[in-house]
From TrEMBL:
<feature type="binding site">
    <location>
        <position position="201"/>
    </location>
    <ligand>
        <name>substrate</name>
    </ligand>
</feature>
<keyword id="KW-0663">Pyridoxal phosphate</keyword>
<keyword id="KW-0413">Isomerase</keyword>
<feature type="domain" description="Alanine racemase C-terminal">
    <location>
        <begin position="133"/>
        <end position="257"/>
    </location>
</feature>
<protein>
    <recommendedName>
        <fullName>Alanine racemase C-terminal domain-containing protein</fullName>
    </recommendedName>
</protein>
<dbReference type="Pfam" id="PF00842">
    <property type="entry name" value="Ala_racemase_C"/>
</dbReference>
<feature type="binding site">
    <location>
        <position position="25"/>
    </location>
    <ligand>
        <name>substrate</name>
    </ligand>
</feature>
<dbReference type="InterPro" id="IPR000821">
    <property type="entry name" value="Ala_racemase"/>
</dbReference>
<dbReference type="InterPro" id="IPR001608">
    <property type="entry name" value="Ala_racemase_N"/>
</dbReference>
<dbReference type="GO" id="GO:0008784">
    <property type="term" value="F:alanine racemase activity"/>
</dbReference>
<dbReference type="Pfam" id="PF01168">
    <property type="entry name" value="Ala_racemase_N"/>
</dbReference>
<dbReference type="InterPro" id="IPR011079">
    <property type="entry name" value="Ala_racemase_C"/>
</dbReference>
<dbReference type="InterPro" id="IPR029066">
    <property type="entry name" value="PLP-binding_barrel"/>
</dbReference>
<dbReference type="GO" id="GO:0006522">
    <property type="term" value="P:alanine metabolic process"/>
</dbReference>
<dbReference type="GO" id="GO:0005829">
    <property type="term" value="C:cytosol"/>
</dbReference>
<dbReference type="GO" id="GO:0030170">
    <property type="term" value="F:pyridoxal phosphate binding"/>
</dbReference>
<dbReference type="InterPro" id="IPR009006">
    <property type="entry name" value="Ala_racemase/Decarboxylase_C"/>
</dbReference>
Length: 263
């Protein structure tokens, strides 16, 4: 469960305790809290507990509310018992982004806003401030008219008309998913949502035929952002929003924009 035998070699033995209240990924089982308290008491002269925390196993729908409340009760009961044994108050935290919205009663001493910092809130319904601040764009690197009945890409998407095909400098190595092939996904340019025809490792082919504005090499195409909501792109990719964000490849350039320049 926990070894404090080597605590003397830690220069500043401040510790943070994670309790397993049901996720069963990391942490000390709440069933072992009495053993933990004994170990902490025996080593109270050389360690200091800074925080106690846990992680919800599910908070995304109302159907999980009873489970979440049970976890919260287990956590608070265990944390209070540890504090009582220690003889001092400890910072307690439990809520991630979704739980911060859905369970204000469980905010305790702090909350852990992760994907919520980017406006990604994996719960419904959304509230006014839940606006995604992240966007992904890619440049057009090639334009070509392709004849009717010809095929496009490895998926051999067959064209039912003469079509203007744009090639984007982004592919599945950068985090896109091949679920978007054959028009299953869309991207945005000049007011139009245009179909994705084929995604390869480094490039993506899109159908620009219906765009009435002049399209040029190096024009930026929105993968997700203001006009293609991140949640919509994630659904097309058959994943959740923060999974899509986390899966963006290392070569995708991250540009952080100050608020005063965001518009």
């Amino acid at each position: 469960m926990l070894s404090l035998d080597q605590v003397d070699i830690i220069p500043f033995p401040n510790i943070h305790i994670k309790l397993d209240t049901g996720l069963h990924r990391l942490g000390i089982s709440v069933n072992d809290v009495p053993i933990l308290i004994n170990k902490l008491s025996a080593n109270s002269h050389r360690i200091h507990v800074k925080s106690i925390y846990s992680h919800f196993m599910g908070i995304y729908t109302s159907g999980l509310d009873d489970m979440a409340r049970h976890q919260a009760d287990l956590f608070v009961t265990s944390a209070v018992a540890i504090e009582k044994a220690l003889g001092y108050s400890v910072m307690k935290h439990l809520c991630n982004s979704g739980a911060t919205i859905r369970y204000p009663d469980f905010h305790l001493d702090m909350v852990r806003i992760g994907c919520g910092l980017y406006g990604i809130w994996p719960v419904q319904p959304k509230v006014e401030f839940q606006t995604c601040v992240a966007s992904l764009v890619a440049p057009i690197i090639r334009l070509e008219w392709v004849c009717e009945n010809d095929t496009v890409g490895y998926v051999q998407h067959r064209l039912n008309r003469s079509s203007l095909i744009g090639v984007l400098c982004i592919g599945y190595v950068d985090g896109l998913r091949r679920h978007l092939n054959n028009g299953e996904g869309r991207v945005w340019i000049y007011g139009y949502r245009v179909p994705i025809l084929s995604i390869s490792m480094d490039m993506t082919m899109i159908d620009l035929t219906d765009v009435t504005e002049q399209v040029n090499i190096n024009d930026q195409v929105e993968i997700f952002g203001e006009h293609i909501p991140l949640e919509q792109m994630a659904r097309w990719c058959q994943m959740v929003s923060h999974e899509l964000i986390a899966g963006l490849g290392q070569r995708v350039m991250r540009i952080f924009v100050a608020e005063e320049y965001a518009n």
